[in-house]
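Field log, afternoon session.

UNIT: design team B
ACTIVITY: writing a sequence onto a fixed backbone
BACKBONE:
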């Protein structure tokens, strides 16, 4: 179909593998936590704009170092994901 995919679930798994202390889901396990929502937005940003979210200043209520980590994971995940996509 030629549609781009934003690999949010893969990014969450990658983030949890590296930082299991940073919860991606709220305690109800049905909704993303603030960190999970931020990561999802960073992945979508990277997918839509084909550029890294690293260095974006907005981090709302997240600690700046957590936002920096999530931005990096988002970009690395999108880059890795694209390597496996067929050429358009």
């Amino acid at each position: 179909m030629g549609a781009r995919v934003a690999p949010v679930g893969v990014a969450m798994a990658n983030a949890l593998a590296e930082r299991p202390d940073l919860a991606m889901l709220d305690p109800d396990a049905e909704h993303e936590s603030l960190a999970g929502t931020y990561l999802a937005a960073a992945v979508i940003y990277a997918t839509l704009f084909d550029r890294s979210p690293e260095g974006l200043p907005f981090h709302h209520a997240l600690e700046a170092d957590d936002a920096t980590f999530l931005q990096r994971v988002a970009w690395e995940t999108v880059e890795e994901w694209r390597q496996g996509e067929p050429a358009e």
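LOG NOTE: Residues 64-83 form the longest helix (20 residues).
NEXT ACTIVITY: expression trials, pending approval
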